[in-house]
Each structure stands twice: as C-alpha cells, then as structure tokens.
Amino acid sequence: MQISVTFRQMEPSEALKNYVTERLRKFKRYLEGPQEAHVVLGLEKFRHLADVTINSNGRIIKGREENADMYAAIDLVMDKIDQQLRKMREKIRDKGDRSRAAAPVASLEAEENPVLPPVRRRRMEVPPLQLADALELMEAKGDDLLVFTDVASGALSILHRRPDGSYLLVEPEIG
C-alpha cells in the first residue's frame, strides 16, 4: 500500500506518521488491487483534524474526523474507514452469493425476457398542492423534480426544472 501523510498547520511528526501507517496497513486485508492512501493531519485552532482517502482499484473510501487529541482523531477516522470497508466487503460477498444462487433461474428468464438495465426505486410522499405552492416547494428544496397531486384536478402531476431554467409540468392522461 502506498501511503502519503501530509501535515497542515503543524510540525511533521515521525511518531504520528508511523501510527497512521501502522493503522492503515491493517486494512490491506479488505482491499484488492493497487492501493493508495492519502492522509491529511491538520490543526485548526484547538481542533485536530484527520482526513483519510483510500483508493483501491478504483474504489474510493473517505473519512474525516476531528477531536481535541490528534491520536483520538486518527482512531475515530480509522474506525469510520473500517466500518466502510466491512460494509463494502459484505455487499460484495452478498452480491456474489445472490448471483451464484440465482444463476440457473436467470438463464431461463433471459430466454423469455430481454435483459433490462438495473432500475433504482424510491418511495416518496405525494403531497396535495396547487401549482404555485409546488413551484415554491421545489425552489425551497432546490430539487429539479417534484411529484405532487394537483388540488384542482386531483390528478398526479410532475413538475420538472429544465437545464435552461424553465419548468415542465407533466399531467398524465389516464385512458
């Protein structure tokens, strides 16, 4: 693992550098492929900051912590990185288990149906609003899309802010 440690607003310390290096080497078991780690240790007034970025085969893992003690900040950020790496490893393991278990079924389904791209789903509340209220709510949230029930017609409506700043109101016709 290639590790670089940068000190900001504080004197470089070999003890801190060794401590960080030792803690990062423990993560090697979670990572595969070429690995790079960049650690920034800094001091802002009375806060000690530890910022870690790990690049492992294109996967980026980041963590940032602050504390009154530099060693405590390093420990906290390393715990955060450890949790992210464990979660990532579990996802990879679960994904592998599902793909092996579902392989025979998937080949039968592929013959019957064309392969569809993965679709993310999100459940959301659909509030009853007037168009003017929907525009205000959209501006306040800073969103580019708002789904609401039009109070006047009772129909589902979709309000979209286009890249040029204009708005598009979609009112589906159910036939």
Automatic annotation (TrEMBL):
GO terms for cellular component: cytosolic small ribosomal subunit. Residues 119-167 form the Sigma 54 modulation/S30EA ribosomal protein C-terminal domain. InterPro entries: HPF/YfiA_ribosome-assoc, HPF_long/plastid, RHF-like, RHF/RaiA, Ribosom_S30AE_C, Ribosom_S30AE_C_sf. It is found in: Cytoplasm. Keywords: Cytoplasm, Translation regulation. GO terms for molecular function: ribosomal small subunit binding. It comes from the Bacteria. GO terms for biological process: negative regulation of translational elongation. It holds the Pfam family Ribosom_S30AE_C. Its main location: cytoplasm. Required for dimerization of active 70S ribosomes into 100S ribosomes in stationary phase; 100S ribosomes are translationally inactive and sometimes present during exponential growth. Belongs to the HPF/YfiA ribosome-associated protein family. Long HPF subfamily. Associates exclusively with 100S ribosomes, which are dimers of 70S ribosomes. Interacts with 100S ribosomes. This is Ribosome hibernation promoting factor. It comes from Desulfobacca acetoxidans.
